Each structure stands twice: as C-alpha cells, then as structure tokens.
C-alpha cells in the first residue's frame, strides 16, 4: 500500500509499496490489544495459588515456570507494542528482582481502562496526564504507608525472602530456603552496596529441595589437575594467578637450527628449569593451593604434585574474583609479582563429590564475602525453577537491606491506593479526573487476580477488602489459602516498598507510551510476516506478526 500525496495532478509516493501504515484509532486499538494480550498471558501465574506455564521452543527444550519475566522472554514476542510491556518486566527484574508479573498485569489493566475512556472520546494526551498524576500520588501514598525495617531484623528479612518464593516451585521448602537466602545476602553485604553476584548458585539434580545448603565459601566447578595431588588441604594458603604456568612462547617467529643432540637437550632442560623455578616460587612464598586462570604445563603439574600443592587450572575470572573475596587473597597476573602477602587463607580446600560431579570446595574462611548456595531437586526442571525463585528472593532481601522499608502483601497496598486515589481524583480538575479514577480501578486488578487464581469469588473478596480499608486497616490483604481478609503485616507477608513503586512507575510509563502512539508505519506487511499461531489473541500484526520490527515501538512520541 503506497502512501500517496497529491501535488496538483501529480501523485507523489512517500512510502514504499511494501510498507504498511495503520493510523489513528486503528493504531491505538491494535497496540492496546497487543499489550493486553501480553498481560493476559502471565495473569494466571500471580500470587501464591498462581499456575505455571510450560514453554516449549522449536528445538524441543522445555521450561516450566511461574516467573513472569522468564515466561515473557521465552515466548519470543515480536509485536513492538507487546515488546514494550515485556520491557516492563525486564526492568522490574533488573531493578528489584521481584514483582515482574504484578508490573505487567497493572500495565495491561491500565491499557484496558484507557480503551474504555478512548471510546468515550477522551483524548490520549489527557489520559497520559491523568495516569502520570495518579502514579506520582500513588508513590507518595506508598511512602507514607511504608514500614521501617531494621536491617538487623532477621525474622522480617526471612519473611520477605519467603514471600518472594510463595507460589514458585520452591514453596515446599520456602522456610528453609528463605533462611539460606538471608544468611547469604548478609554474608556478602558491604558497607555501601550488596552485589548478589557474590552469591554463587550451584544446581544439583538429585535429592530433595530441603536438602539445599549454604556453603560459606566458594565452590569451583573444576577438579585438581593431577591425581597425585592431595584431595584436601587443611589451613591452606591460597594463591590466585590469572595466567599460565607454562613456558612463555616468543613474541617473534624465530628459526633455530639445532646441529647437535646436546643442544636440543639443553633447550628441554632450560624449559624444565623455567617451570621448576615457577613452582619453587610458589613453594617459597608458602602456597598450599593454587588456582590458575589459564593452563598448567604437564611438567609443572608433576612438580606441583611432588610439592604436595593442590592446583586447579582454567578457573573462570568470576571464580577467581569470588575466591579473592572469600579468602582475602589477591588475584595476580604475573607470577613473579606474587608474594606471601597476596595469598588468601581457607581452613579447608577439598575436592568433593556432589551429585556425581567432582568440585573443589573452598570453605572455613575467616569472613566469607562470597558464598555459594547449593540447590537440590528431584529433576532438572525443579532445580531450574528453584533457582529462579531464589534469584527473586535474593533481589528482594538485597533491596530491603538497602532501603529498609517494606509494605504488607496480599493486595493490601493496591486496595489502599485505589481507595485514596478515588478521593484524590475529586481534587483533580478537568477530564484528567476520569483518568485518575481509571488508574485506581486498574490497581484493583491485583487483589482481584489473587482471588481468581485462588479459586475465590473476586467480587466478594474485593468488597471485603474495600470495607476493611474504608475502616482504616492499611495492612488488610487477601489470604489466598483461606479466602479471608487478614492483617498481612501481622501474618508476616511483607515485600519491599521499592518492588511496588517500581512496578507502578514502569507500568504507567509503558501504558502512557503505548497510548500516545497514533500511527504505526511498518517496513513490510504487518499480517504476512512471522507465524500465525498467536493470531487468536490479537488483531493482525499480533504477537507473531511484525517480524523484525522490535525497534519500531518508540516512534509514537515523535508523531
């Protein structure tokens, strides 16, 4: 469909024959429907009674998960507007580690509410202004409601870790795992920041979830390089060398003519001597264990074994960094520079069998600033899902330790926000008032969905919840197990303030951006590209359409 503009009697072609343009109401409807379809796809996973999704890719590999961001990544969505909603979940995951499904569901519901107002001829810009005002007010209300938490309050931190795991595959052992997560995050915490990358996660298929354990130290997925080396070293001085214990190659291509067998023997003796000196240097500074980032020559392995030094080669740089944090050692890139001050210390370095694999355990360190969680489970799918639950849990405990503020869970903050935003709407002039009311209605999708997923009557649950909040109970939320409205804070169901504020912020931004688009110009046919399997959920150019157009979405603001 070429776009033509008449200049006098002469038509002027602006767009190419292959491109397709959808404008005005059609463009808005198409984008809103795409966004809602994404939200609908993860809605049933929300809450403690949420269902799981099985995702099978073209190669036949299977992922079974309840984690919103994982589902949306694995679904391979092509539609540009739908991708904006996927970005909401990714931002949420990176920033706070949990609340991905909530953020996407709220974004979808904002679009749904907006659609009704657009049908009443309220302009998208008015809606955008109203939504932004409501989001700002919502953040202020949440800040006022936030409960201060001391970072020494181990019990509350464990409850937060446990809440993040509820409804995931790890729920059967969540109390045990929550304890491990809190211990792990506290161990790696620095004064000014907490990097959860220092909590390494090792997955072991075999055993049950509650056999998972925390190793205060580092597990390196390697074996010692020589059978004659000791299996275990007690009170070990650990050398960390990011290089190779090998004879250095010359930088230039040189040809050496050997005329006498003795000369060849001299070359070999000299190489051996170099390797011997390297090993002697390690012995002189008192190293009992050496982790090497590159290779170790066979002859050097023999000498190291003779000296009773346990050596590991081709250790990843990430492992070397973790070992340095755990043992207090320093990673050195030149062996000659290595001295006794650079050595770390570990009470035990041993090669152990775990789930049929041999790995090196570095334990009993003075202050474990790097730790390892060993996750166990009956099958690979179970262990993978436990890992996803643990990652969410690590994120929320980290956020709580950094911010020190939490909110009750179970839909309580959303119910309170809906109540207060309806009051706030009265003070907003003009048509934006309707947008603020729509925003308040949209937030109630969270408690409503929690009720639906638990098999409860959503209307009854919502009426109970509203009545309790009307009576001034800020912490009243829905217990998905009993169907009662209870005080969530007293029950220990809490989550970080930042999980909620980030979800509302990013959901609002994505919904506003989609609503402001009134023209979609595609560099190809919206209907023909991509597969057609997802066409039931959305109009032409749905989740499977618009192949290769991931970067189109941001055009709306410019038109």
- Major sheet attributes: 7 strands, mixed
CATH architecture of the largest domain: Orthogonal Bundle
Instruction: List the quaternary state of the chains.
Output: single chain
Q: For the record, what is the CATH homologous superfamily label of the largest domain?
A: GroEL-like equatorial domain
- The gyration radius over C-alpha positions equals 30 Å
Shape category: elongated
- The CATH topology of the largest domain comes to GROEL, domain 1
* Strand proportion: 15-25%
What do you see in this structure?
With 559 residues, this protein is α+β, with helices and mostly antiparallel strands. The protein has three domains: 18-147 and 414-443 and 494-558, GROEL, domain 1; 150-214 and 375-401, TCP-1-like chaperonin intermediate domain (GROEL, domain 2, 2-Layer Sandwich), CATH 3.30.260.10; 218-367, GroEL (3-Layer(bba) Sandwich). Helix content is 45%, strand content 17%. The chain has helices at residues 24-43, 68-74, 80-95, 100-119, 124-145, 154-165, 174-188, 261-284, 298-306, 317-327, 380-403, 412-426, 432-443, 445-453, 458-470, 488-491, 497-515; strands at residues 4-7, 10-13, 20-23, 53-56, 62-65, 147-148, 199-205, 213-215, 218-220, 232-241, 289-292, 310-312, 331-332, 344-354, 357-363, 371-377, 405-408, 476-478, 485-487, 494-496, 519-522. The strands form seven sheets. Strands 9, 10, 11, 12, 13, 14 and 15 form a seven-stranded mixed beta sheet that branches. A three-stranded antiparallel beta sheet has the order 6-17-20. A three-stranded mixed beta sheet has the order 7-16-8. Helix 4 packs antiparallel against helix 13 (432-443). The protein is elongated and about 95 Å long. Residues 527-559 have low confidence and may be disordered.
